[in-house]
């Protein structure tokens, strides 16, 4: 089964904004720098983000 990555971050170079889809085949999920650990907001940032 093919997996899709949906994204609404319009400033990312990999976002196909017309479809709200990431054009990468996979992404790296990383925690934010200098954040407290243990909450979804701190532990689920896209490490593959590249500014457009």
Q: Main traits of this protein?
A:
single chain; 52 residues; mainly beta; two-stranded antiparallel ribbon; 1 helix
Summarize the structure in words.
8% of the residues lie in helices and 15% in strands. The radius of gyration is 12 Å and the shape is globular. It is built from one helix and four strands; from the N terminus they run E-E-E-H-E. It has one helix at 40-43, and strands at 15-16, 21-22, 29-30, 45-46. The protein has one domain (1-52). Strand 1 (15-16) and strand 2 form a beta hairpin.
For the record, give the distance between the C-alpha atoms at the N and C termini, rounded to a whole number: 30 Å
Roughly what percent helix? under 10%
Given the structure, what is the number of helices? 1
What radius of gyration results from the CA coordinates?
A: 12 Å
Give the domain tally: 1
Derived from helix and strand composition plus strand pairing, the structural class reads: mainly beta
Average the pLDDT over all residues and give the rounded result: 89
- Outline the biggest β-sheet: 2 strands, antiparallel
- What spatial form do the alpha-carbon principal axes imply? globular
Low-confidence spans = none
Oligomer: single chain
Give me the count of strands: 4
- Give, in order, the helices and strands: EEEHE
């Amino acid at each position: 089964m093919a997996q899709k990555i949906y994204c609404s971050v319009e400033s990312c170079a990999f976002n196909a904004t017309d479809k709200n889809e990431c054009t990468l085949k996979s992404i790296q999920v990383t925690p934010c720098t200098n954040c407290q650990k243990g909450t979804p907001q701190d532990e689920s940032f896209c490490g593959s983000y590249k500014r457009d």
